[in-house]
UniProtKB/TrEMBL annotation, chain A:
This is Uncharacterized short protein YbdD, DUF466 family. PANTHER family: CYTOPLASMIC PROTEIN, CYTOPLASMIC PROTEIN-RELATED. It comes from the Bacteria. It comes from Nitrosospira multiformis. InterPro entries: Sel_put.
Automatic annotation (TrEMBL), chain B:
One of its GO terms (biological process) is cellular response to starvation. It comes from the Bacteria. The chain crosses the membrane at residues 7-26, 32-52, 93-113, 119-139, 160-183, 189-209, 221-238, 258-277, 284-301, 321-341, 362-385, 464-482, 510-529, 541-566, 573-593, 639-660. Belongs to the peptide transporter carbon starvation (CstA) (TC 2.A.114) family. This is Carbon starvation protein. PANTHER family: INNER MEMBRANE PEPTIDE TRANSPORTER, PYRUVATE_PROTON SYMPORTER BTST. It is a multi-pass membrane protein.
Amino acid sequence: MIEREGDFGKIIEEERTMLTRIVSGLRYLGQGMRLMVGMPEYSTYVAHMHHAHPDRPVMSYEEFFRERQEARYGGNGKVTRCC
Amino acid sequence: MNALLSKLGWFAFAVTGAFALAVVALNRGESIGAIWIVIATICTFTIGYRFYSRFIASQILRLDPTRMTPAYKHNDGLDYVPTNKYVLFGHHFAAIAGAGPLVGPILAAQMGYMPSMLWLLAGVVLAGAVQDFIVLFISTRRDGRSLGDLIKSEMGQLPGMIALFGTFFIMLVLLAVLALIVVKALAESPWGTFTVAATIPIALFMGVYARYIRPGSIGEVSLIGFVLLILSIVGGQYVQEIPSLAALFMLTGEQLTWLLIGYGFIASVMPVWLLLAPRDYLSTFLKIGTVVSLAIGVLIISPELKMPALTQFVDGSGPVWSGSLFPFLFITVACGAISGFHSLISSGTTPKMIRNERDARFIGYGAMLMESFVAIMALVAASTIEPGVYFAMNSPAAIIGTTAESATQVISQWGFYVTPEMITQTARDVGEHTVISRTGGAPTLAVGMAQILSEVLGGQAMMAFWYHFAILFEALFILTAVDAGTRAGRFMLQDLLGSFIPFMKRTDSIIANLIATSVCVAGWGYFLYQGVVDPLGGINTLWPLFGISNQMLAGIALVLCSCVLFKMKQDRFAWVTILPAIWVFVCTLTAAWQKIFDANPRIGFLAHANKYKEAVTEGTVLAPAKSIGQMQQVIFNDYINASLAALFMLVLISMLAFGIRTALRARALGTPTAREAPFELLPVEIVSRT
């Protein structure tokens, strides 16, 4: 009986790791797709600012979005795509 | 035991690859399934990645997993962000994949599928992926600096300037040839023109939506845009069927040219969030989606290759482009095997996000293998079309005429089976008035894709939809490239001119901007127009010029890589980049030389000019010119093209000289002289995490 419960627990545990894997896989997929169009992860930026520059203001998501858009397309001669 | 098993496994893998290659190579007279090409490709690439790239990584570059990367050193959460290697692979691949690897193999298919396939496989493993990987490594070790900067610091100020100067001209030729592909695909096609035109209001709507209605919602707005795009493809069919609307979108090549030039100018001075950014979202996601579905389609149905392995056109007499297998095949295939442009991407945003130096192998070498795989898919798509129809689509009207009957007559004489019904039926299947002389590669790819995808989904009835979907997908990312390329070109020009006229350097000045933008648009517009009115189809002239310029940049990048290897005191391994460099130099210089001086007017610009000059003195008018004035224009164009080819040769030769000088200097010194950022240790907790 106890053994069975242990099995059951193991199955739940396995399913949970499976689920977290799928979730993190999907998260990476979303991250990857956004980065394909030059938009890095906002949460990473916020975490970085809190960690490294707690004294400086942090851009809101909207500001961050505009800043990144301007940086990718606004020029300075960067070639962001190929033939 | 494990080691033995692994060795046996790799041996089996190598045998499978060799067997698949043998099937492809030795099977004459009967058509083979595309699956053999796919197997040969996968085996070659896996072995190349596992052994050759590993050798480069561990023996030559000595990638150091404990070494600080720019992403950690300069971490700002914006440009410099340590990024998961699979996520970054996607970013890098999306940046390097474009129209080039799709169009090149399609045009090269006139010689049969075999030469292109062999060059794609060998070229990418030994040259293209090596270049991408090593440039990425060099830039990562130098704070993620750009190619121009790297050349300046490793080889000197002057070579850096020359490389930038060359890059600007590549940009012009690239934009012209890309725009020409769009013109060729949309001319006299109301359906295609309508759907592509519809992308402009769709993108504008998306731009406003992502900025004001739901700020920053990239995924959501892209989905909305995608649905609208599909609706515009469906709508295009109705537009084509209603005569009054169809007349509105029935445009000639020249009309489209002027529209594109106008579009290029306006789009590149508009705010980026309004048109460029949303268009980029659509084109990037559509590109990835289409490439993946094409690959799945090929795997599922393994279409039969109808194109012969080799055609008689290896001698250089082909109708699609002129010139013999050496050197022109290598110039034509270009991007899928080795692309100089990638050196700009590998020294662009990617090195600023590499989490660990070790990832450079997977991202640099791996993404290029993937790109080459896309090129193989394009080759498969082109080869599944009946060769007779392929030549009807890709030969200029000056050679095969404008009717199905005349085309059939000429193409039958070349020994390919074709009937007028086959040509008209293909046009009817894809919902076009005609497919004759639809040069430029895009329509051919679209027909091939439509055949493959309709077999997977929708059957014959969906073929017209898939055809226009493929045209839309190509036109969309080409227009994005035209827009973004004009902006990039404008900045390059301002940078270059700024060295002489300080005012031009002011990127905040509207007047300086407008001047530089106009010069850029006029530059590519000139080549585009010249290509559109050319009776031989323009691709004949522009694609080799583009190939030469692209391979020239590859030559420059490989020279830089070799110099850095010498400066790292890895002389004995420098052949890894020197051998591909020699090959690229030989092909590019020979091709440029022949384009200028060959006695055949179909190949040599000067011979072509002389032919027209003689006609002028005799007082006769040769097509496409309709007057002596236009004859003069043709002659002038020839001289411009010849000068451009000469310029590319000069750039290449001077870079070679500077490269040799740098290498000799490095050899004379006993210690490494590579100018890497000083060694720092990655913080321990990061090393253990990655």
